[in-house]
Amino acid sequence: MFRLPVFFSLVVFSAGAAMKPGSVTFYKDVLPILQKNCQECHRAGEVAPMAFTTYEEVRPWAKAMRVAVLSRKMPPWFADPAYGKFHNERMLRPDEMEKIVKWIDKGAPAGDKREAPPMKQWTEGWSIGKPDLVVEMPQAFPVPAKGTIEYTYLVLPLNLTKDTWVQAAEVRPGDRAVVHHVIAFLREPGSKWMRDVDYGVPFVPNKTARNSRNSGASEAGGPGSELLVGYAPGLQAQIFRPGTAKLLKAGTDVVFQMHYTANGKASLDRTKIGLTFAKEPPRERVMTMAASNTKFVIPAGEGNHRVESQFTLQADTRLTGLMPHMHLRGKAFQYKAVYPTGESEILLNVPRYDFAWQLFYYLAEPKVFPKGTRIECVAYFDNSANNAFNPDPSKEVRWGDQSWEEMMIGWFDVAFDATMSPIKLYRADKPANPTTGGE
Fold first, then answer.
1. Contact by Cβ (8 Å): 34, 74
2. Which position among 77, 216, 374, 430 has the lowest Cβ density within 10 Å, counted as fewest Cβ atoms?
3. Residue ranges of the chain whose pLDDT lies below 50
4. What 3-state DSSP class applies to 391?
């Protein structure tokens, strides 16, 4: 639980003295706030365990809501406001917090239903609206009640006969209770990655097959396989800015990476992804990349272990979003850009990382990165007994797939000229031959 800063507490409670007298009610004051900030998750079929769409649904949770709002536990948002501005920010304004607290303290009255805003309309089953293409596991996967479940993969065809641009993408797990995360990778035509497996058949590949994507990290992608879209608790659907999109080449397949977690009850999962296509070719192509470190060792009992990673972009790009990823010992994460001039700036600071909410932070305005810009990431891990979520503080921890192991990935989205090969993002130009002027 986050501690509310003293300065913020003063703002909230001094605002109460300035608020005009009058009855604060659910329909007039609270419901509009819930529609704007909460119902994306708090509605039937979504990640939150309870719905907040009607008074009858919200009223039993009033006291818990008061604690969650004042502690900043809800809505989940962990970016330090001193660095960066993000268009998907979920923080409540001080006046919104004050209304909710005052409503609860006055007994949580319903008020006049005629003062309620129109019910917010959601597309059933999708946050992106009706998809143009849905790709679903052909059969439900049986998740056992107990035991460790290794990362499971499925290769599915997209059956695209021409290059297609994706404007929005969303993952919908069949059973959120057992789906820890999903990553949908793209396997382009001609790629040898997992070519010996049958379409639609779940399998657990060996380490060599998993890491053959020209990547040092089993989740961090690379030029051999592009990340299309992911799912984790709190992660929103990907909706790209007008004029930007992700590319699906004709003949591309999608590879589902499924991480299941047994919860004591046997279950069936049939995950699917939905894609909405751009109506016209974009000016810029979006790619999800990563600055990762797989070689760390976190000593037993260490409460503030530092791990670093970096990635140098070899072409001009625009940064559009950031997503830190660690596991249960993750404590804090920071991104910094170091420009070719030597100047630097902090892009995102997450002082209290929460593994239960995997958030992507989308910049309010894309940031121009000239060729040679280096993204530096610093992560801190708490492997001590003070970490209530630590599986075992007596053991050193290394990189691994399971939640009791660790990862250090600084995901980030960049947009670049749609006509440029993404290989140029990874490979520096060879110096010109001083004699011939060529390579």
1. no
2. 430
3. 1-21, 212-223, 434-439
4. coil
Q: What is the dihedral of CA 355, 356, 358, 361, to 10 degrees?
A: -90
Greatest alpha-carbon pair distance for the chain in Å reads 83
Q: Encoding tokens for residue 175?
A: 């059973």
As a whole number of Å, the end-to-end CA separation of the chain is: 57
| pLDDT tens for each residue of 205-228 | 876 555 544 333 333 344 456 899
For residue 75, cis peptide bond before it (omega within 30 degrees of 0)? yes
Nearest to 330 by CA among 411, 409, 216, 258: 409
| CA dist., res. 321 & res. 409, Å (int) | 14
Exposure of 204 by Cβ count < 10 A (0-12 exposed, 13-18 middle, 19+ buried)?
exposed
The CATH code of the domain that includes 254 is 2.60.120
Say what the pLDDT of residue 429 is. Answer: 63
Backbone angles phi, psi at 424, to 5 degrees: -65, -20
Domain residues for the domain of 89 are 6-115
For residue range 94-116, list pLDDT tens digits in order.
Answer: 888 899 999 999 999 999 999 88
Return the SS3 of 22.
coil
Q: Are 329 and 256 found together in one domain?
A: no
Are 93 and 166 within one domain? no
The continuous run of DSSP H or E covering 330 comes out as: strand 330-338
What three-state secondary structure class fits 256? strand
Amino acid at 60: P
Report yes or no on whether pTM surpasses 0.85. Answer: no
Q: Is 120 part of any domain?
A: no
Task: Please state, as a whole number, how many other Cβ atoms lie within 10 Å of the Cβ of residue 295.
Answer: 11
Alpha helices (H) in 61-177, listed in sequence order:
62-70, 94-105
